[in-house]
Amino acid sequence: MIDLSTVVVTGLGTVDAAGCGRERIAAAYRDATTHWQSVDLSAGYHASQASQLAGLTRGLDLRPWLAPAKARRMSLPSKLAVAATKMALEDAEREAVEASELPTAVVVSTAHGPTSLIDGILRQSVTKGPMAVSPALFTESVANAPAAQIAIACGALGPNLTVTQREAGVLIALAQGATEIKTGRAGCVLAVAVDELHPMLHAVLGRFGALASQDADGNEVARPFDRHRRGFVAGEGACAVVLETDSSARARGGRVLARLRAGGSAFDPHAPRTGWSKSPAPLAAALARFLERSEVAPSDIDCIVSGASGSVTGDRLEALVLKSVWGNRALPSILTPKAWLGEHSGGMLSAAVLAAEGAAFGPTPGFTTVDPELGVHPHDGSTMRRPGTILIVSLAVGGAAAWTLIERAEA
Amino acid sequence: MGLGTEGLGVAGLERREAPEPAQQTVVVTGIGAVSVWGWDAASLWRGLNTGQTGIAQAQRFKTTGHRTGVAGEVPAAPVGLDSNYPDWRRYSQADRFAVVATLEACRQAGLTEIEGSVASSTEFLSSDIGLFFGGSTAGMAEGEAFFNHLVAGDRRRARLQLLASHPLNGPGDAVARLVGITGPVRSFSSACASAGLAIGAALDALRSGEVEVAIAGGADSLCQLTYAGFNALRAVDSRPCRPFRGDRAGMSLGEGAGVVVLETLERAKKRGATVLAELVGAGASCDAHHMTAPHPRGDGAALAVQRALGDATIRPDDISFVNAHGTGTPHNDASEWNAIETVFGTRASKIPTTSTKGSVGHLLGSSGAIEAVATIQCLIARQVHPTPGDGAVDETFGVDLVTGAPRNLAAATTDVAVDGAGPERAFAVSTSFGFGGANAALVFSRESRGAAL
């Protein structure tokens, strides 16, 4: 367990399938609207009958936060991450990130990195020979390109880290960012989750059988925890939060959106490399231990922001882990942002911060039928009391897991 | 020797009092390495001290048309090594480097008595052990094979198995799965600073009490994407790299892994482990300057070293030698020398400096890990390994580059007792500077403060 107390969130920026900015994502969550688009199938990577939809950022105008001349040299993840960070700084009313004596750190999580550039380089190499590889593409193909571009754009001279622990990375990055503050290495942290969904990645996920396939009505829908879930809808986007100490925020008159309390992570070594474990026991024990060390009882938690995505085995594992820890107690409200945005980890950050602020959430898109084995009802759109304590949970393919406790500002 | 499994259950757990961060002493009790010199740390150390480079013509794939054809390739695994690993055939090359280096480090640390089997390894591992791993390519080589088949329209040979370890968390997860870790597992990919940052994160976790033992390091394998990319950037030397030489012309790519077992001194003492060195401090920074070029003055690099020294609560004068990032590119070495001068002032030219990359090549995301291992080996042996490469040292630098043969550690400070074999106490800094200006520095000590080794 990592003690994150005294670290607060003062800014939120989002670029995702719902659009740009906290108002757009808040409206999507409230209105229960999804914005799936068709994936480009022209490269021929996809099998016939493959899933075709995803939560994409195609067509969004990032110019208010990123000048076209600078964007031209960036990969899509870099563009999304820099734009979301600029939004978060605006939201935090922090223009100069080096305002404090301590430097600003950048911690980014990404599951797959800039996949479009990797595809581009491999395609150049295969079709035209290795000498044809573009140095510009290669430069931006590294996983830490978004973190570097954020630092360049914001003049952030503090530690610069990129976490690559799949779905769990977003919460590991959040805790790492808070640690940079707690240890006195940074006065401000820009913590960002960014994912890109390239057609090649989409096709590969489809071949693994991970994506929501078409139902009888021809729809591809993410149905977290639903009896009829058939996989997740892929997604992309960026979500950035500004972290600083409570005292720092107060000193500059900043608005506190949420307070971090504790972070933790664990691993199930019995999980398959490309899926989730069948047994909830190891991660349930780890989550219970985390809560105990955080001195938080399950009954203290008012809301869970879940990483459930519609994955058949992933949602099952998460449900069984939660039910194991809660025992006979009723689970609190469960938000599943991936039902809105697809498999983009940043959605968990935006949903958690907005929930802490008291934002309204509509009924979970796609959810119709309780899975009798899981017995979990994601949020049904009823009025939700503003939560005091929120648990964010993310269980990754391959065995990693992470959780974070956050609290509303007045708690 | 086992570590016990207390803390695995939920009931009956006692809330641990985490020590104040700076008070917790963190020591190294095991090291492991895979490199061009072989599949263990001993062969690395032997190779480093030959003063010769292991970099040679690459065999793994065709290099025709590139600026260079050389690389620091890991030789074929020793016959029978694979029998220790049930998943060997399913591993990517980077996974293999990672698991072999890890088990070597764990064995040395006394964390396992396994010989020929990993089955018993879960007996000692608990949730108080964490894994912190860095890398930049993971299963890219295998991903390339998948892609080539896919583009060629051969879907049958484009097996999904080739992609199972493609994600950047692949090697770390493979290690965690092999040794049965149930604590935190964290993968980092910040280009060439990845493993240095991962080791720094492990230090945080140990100091805060989040874990009591950390396996930290990194692994990367050669792949055509990075080989072509660095060639396209004209960042490679046609000959084996020559760090800090006047006629240096670029880097040489390498592959392999480095792993250290870290634990609190208290825990190491309690279980009677042999302490190899102390990880005294870590520092990180960002140039915030350019995606590929280092800051010409080395400002960011200097900041990382200064922060590491501050974290270690030692002075620049306490440093006995520097294991430099030392890639051999004109810009990096110049920038790094400026950083060394910034940190050490007039003493900069008197500090023995070496570059492990001259011997094994640039291991990219795992370079900080194998260089941490090399630094620890230097401290243990009380000698600094030489930097291979011909040509005179760049006369615009004042760097005291160790060349030709190993050099015994000289007194770095007046308060260090010196005898013919070198100082009784020595601090060394190992640096890693990556694409995008990500910088990491680690400070190791031969002697654990508060306890003789």
Concise summary:
The complex is a heterodimer of chains A (411) and B (453). Chain A is α/β, with parallel strands linked by helices and 411 residues long. Helix content of chain A is 32%, strand content 19%.
**Fraction of residues in helix of chain A:** 25-40%
Which superfamily, in CATH terms, is the homologous superfamily of the largest domain in chain B? Thiolase/Chalcone synthase
Assembly category: heterodimer
- Any idea how many domains of chain B? 2
* Rg of chain B: 21 Å
Instruction: Provide the structure class of chain A.
Output: alpha/beta
Q: Which pair of chains has the greatest number of interface residues, and how are they split between the two chains? A: A-B, 83 and 85 residues
Low-confidence segments of chain B, given as residue ranges, are 1-21, 113-124, 411-422
Beta strands of chain B, count: 17
The major sheet of chain B is characterized as: 11 strands, mixed
* Large-scale geometry of chain A: globular
Task: Give the CATH class of the largest domain in chain A.
Answer: Alpha Beta
What would you say the CATH architecture of the largest domain in chain B is? 3-Layer(aba) Sandwich
Strand elements of chain A, count:
15
N- and C-termini, Cα separation of chain B: 19 Å
The average pLDDT of chain B is 87
Beta-strand residue percentage of chain A: 15-25%
CATH 4th-level superfamily of the largest domain in chain A: Thiolase/Chalcone synthase
Taking the alpha carbons of the first and last residues of chain A, their distance comes to 20 Å
